[in-house]
Write a structure and sequence with these properties.
heterodimer; A: MetI-like fold; B: D-Maltodextrin-Binding Protein, domain 2; D-Maltodextrin-Binding Protein, domain 2; 2 domains
């Protein structure tokens, strides 16, 4: 009796979903599949002029990429960026959100706008300003460090300092977005819980540990996964600031992929790197989700 | 003034302006718009040069787009794939084989045959040949570039060498003499380890083709290159050259002035930099010289670098574009271009200029430019050059012996050229099949 109604419901649901699924299929799944197929060919500069010269090469691109020291250097750089920059970015976002939440003044929306401004500013413009900040001789950052007796650092020219420089820029540029999400999460924690905790004699640290953090757990999962995925795709910052140097210390996987693809036009190799990055990112996301799940049980 | 007069004037103004705009529209319809892509500083300067061209040719308008060097190669390739290439562009001459392989460039031989300004014999032969693929010219040299020696006359004179030697053996003796007087913490020559040019130049000087079998295999382990490579590596091993790259020397001009090294193999852009950055006392103490060769019979050749002007195959305005190339190639424009940028003119006639002939440091460039040879003209060359730099650096830093560095290099090159070998074999097969 209810089966036809159910079926009609399902059909209606598919109908409503169809446009979205169609778009995702066309602009997401299709390119991914095309990329995977491309990674099995040696599509290169010759193949642009004469497509018939592209050959199916099986897994040769994967073998070549995985045995290339430059690729592993890029993986290492990318992990450095994700593992240091990612948590730092989340912590700064959380700190900013807590500050905004605590000071419930009229200035709150002003600060929210100010902190969010870097997220929507063009990176190329930001990079010009930051290159001045990082300038070894005239930069403000080294000037400020000088007040504490720290000697000048060649931020973008020294292989040891270039990546920290990129991380600092990326954290500053991106923390505003997660801050808004944390702020929303903070707003949704019931005030009664705080009152109940206060009555039970919990101090502000205990309230933060036992009310705020558990209340934010789902937000953490979302923020953690999206930040990680975003940070794995590090590209624009080194591209405009250092071009991957000095001594390849800021070459990320995506930057290397771009070089292979658009500088040498080795599309097969570039697609291979894209596929490998997909695997790495997916593994990272699954790891995070399983960790959170373990926590909640 | 009456209202009527005002009305008459208004009508007059409107009529005149209508006529003028009408004319302009008519003119616009027959106007040819050329799209020109210039790279870096040259792109900025060429906008000034083309104003005169537009005055000479009122029917042609040139739109110059300036592209930074760092993004130029990508942008040109993507433009080709997206079918949005300009009519005419500046192109680094080592990129020409790649764009010819893509069939992106128009052959220029028919135009050259009818030209008076642009004749092969008016250019440095080595530079001209970088524009010719299988007997067809695809680019016209615009400005030229090579590497030679910048050296401290005072230090070399103290070491007993008032003039720069011309053979490797004497050069090496000059370096040893220099090393003896400057001491352990200073060096005779600076050959930056982050550049591929120096080991490649030594190889070319010794007659190495760099690649063998129609440029389909590395020839780096063969004697011609190996001997040159050993000469180069020994300079580091024997403490004559510091095993460092440019980034490890914070400021080459300061170090040159301090006497950290007495000789430096570099390019024409440093002529201006040396004049600007060295102190007044240092001016007159440095000079340029062609790079010494293996022996008296082999002149010391160097790299044939520079930029060319090319015409894109799908341009609908080839005739107008060729006119612009001829205009820019005229010695008078080349001289203006040199005055604006410091880029060395490609036309030999343009060197008959007091600014160029009066400067002894320029004469060395002119002599060197008469002895330049192209690197292998295949799309993969730039990738191979980076491997040469990588392996030379490993050997110079003592990480691997010279001969195993070369074996590794040949192995890498073998892999890079796999596609090229396959294409050559395929072409041979189809050549056999067709009667």
């Amino acid at each position: 009796m209810s089966a036809p109604i159910e079926r009609r419901k399902v059909r209606t649901a598919w109908l409503f979903l169809a446009p979205a699924l169609g778009l995702i299929g066309l602009f997401f799944f299709l390119p991914v599949i095309a990329g995977l197929l491309l990674s099995l060919t040696d599509f290169d500069i010759y193949a642009i002029g004469a497509p018939e010269t592209a050959r199916f090469v099986g897994l040769r691109n994967y073998a070549e990429t995985l045995s290339s020291p430059l690729f592993w250097q890029a993986v290492k750089n990318t992990f450095y960026f994700v593992l240091v920059g990612g948590p730092l970015s989340v912590l700064v976002s959380l700190g900013a959100a807590l500050l905004l939440h605590a000071r419930a003044t009229r200035l709150r929306s002003l600060f929210r706008t100010v902190y969010f401004a870097p997220v929507v500013t063009t990176l190329v413009a930001v990079a010009i300003v930051w290159r001045y900040l990082y300038h070894p001789r005239y930069g403000f950052l080294n000037h400020a460090l000088g007040w504490f007796g720290v000697g000048p650092i060649d931020w973008l020219g020294d292989p040891t300092w270039a990546m920290p420089g990129i991380i600092l820029l990326a954290v500053w540029k991106n923390f505003g977005y997660n801050m808004l999400i944390f702020a929303a999460g903070l707003g949704s924690i019931s005030q009664e819980l705080y009152e109940a905790a206060a009555i039970d004699g919990a101090g502000s640290w205990q309230r933060f540990r036992n009310v705020t953090l558990p209340g934010l757990a789902p937000v953490f999962l979302f923020v953690g996964v999206t930040t990680m995925i975003g940070f794995f795709q590090l590209f624009a910052e080194p591209y405009v600031m250092t071009q991957g140097g000095p001594l390849r210390s800021t070459t990320s996987v995506v930057l290397l992929m771009y070089e292979e693809g658009f500088r040498w036009w080795r599309m097969g190799i570039a697609s291979t790197m894209a596929a490998l990055l997909l695997v790495i990112t997916l593994a990272g996301a699954l790891l995070q989700i399983s960790l959170r799940r373990g926590e909640r049980v | 003034m009456s209202a009527r007069l005002a009305a008459v004037m208004a009508v007059a103004v409107i009529t005149v302006s209508l006529v003028v705009t009408g004319c302009r529209r008519a003119e616009h319809e027959t106007e040819t718009v050329l799209h020109f892509w210039g790279l870096g500083r040259e792109g900025e300067v060429v906008a000034e040069l083309v104003r005169d061209f537009e005055r000479e040719n009122p029917r042609i308008r040139v739109e110059v787009q300036q592209i930074p060097w760092t993004a130029a190669h990508e942008k040109l390739l993507t433009a080709f794939v997206g079918r949005s290439t300009p009519d005419i562009s500046q192109l680094g001459n080592t990129w020409i084989p790649e764009f010819v392989a893509l069939r992106a460039l128009a052959p220029l031989t028919p135009w050259i045959e009818q030209s008076i300004t642009v004749r092969p014999e008016k250019y440095f032969p080595g530079i001209w040949s970088t524009n010719v693929v299988d007997g067809t010219a695809y680019g016209i040299p615009w400005y030229v570039d090579t590497r030679l020696l910048f050296y401290r006359k005072d230090i070399l004179a103290r070491a007993g060498f008032p003039t720069m030697p011309v053979t490797w053996a004497e050069w090496r003796a000059a370096m040893e003499a220099t090393k003896r007087i400057v001491g352990a913490d200073r060096y005779a020559v600076f050959l930056p380890l982050n550049e591929w040019a120096q080991p490649v130049i030594f190889g070319l000087q010794n007659g190495s083709p760099l690649l063998a079998d129609e440029w389909s295999r590395g020839a780096f382990a063969e004697p011609a290159f190996r001997d040159a490579f050993e000469f180069y590596i020994d300079l580091f091993r024997d403490g004559l050259a510091p095993p460092v790259g440019n980034n490890e020397i914070a400021n080459v001009y300061q170090e040159f002035e301090r006497g950290y090294f007495a000789m430096y193999v570099t390019g024409p852009w440093n002529l201006g930099e040396f004049k600007r950055r060295l102190s007044p006392e240092m001016q007159g103490k440095w000079a340029t010289a062609p790079i010494p060769g293996p022996d008296a019979a082999h002149p010391g050749v160097s790299l044939a670098g520079g930029s060319s002007l090319v015409l894109f195959a799908n341009s609908p305005h080839k005739e107008a574009a060729w006119k612009l190339i001829e205009f820019l190639s005229a010695p008078v424009q080349e001289r203006r271009f040199y005055a604006l940028t410091g880029d060395l003119p490609a036309q030999i006639a343009a060197w008959e200029d007091s600014a160029l002939t009066g400067d002894p440091n320029m004469r060395a460039f002119r002599d060197q430019l008469l002895h330049v040879v192209p690197t292998p003209m295949i799309p993969e060359w730039e990738q191979i050059a980076m491997r040469v730099q990588e392996k030379a650096e490993m050997a110079a830093r003592g990480a691997v012996p010279a001969d195993s560095a070369l074996a590794l290099l040949d192995r890498d090159v073998e892999r890079i050229l796999e596609k090229r070998r396959w294409l050559l074999a395929r072409a041979r097969e189809s050549g056999e099949n067709t009667p």
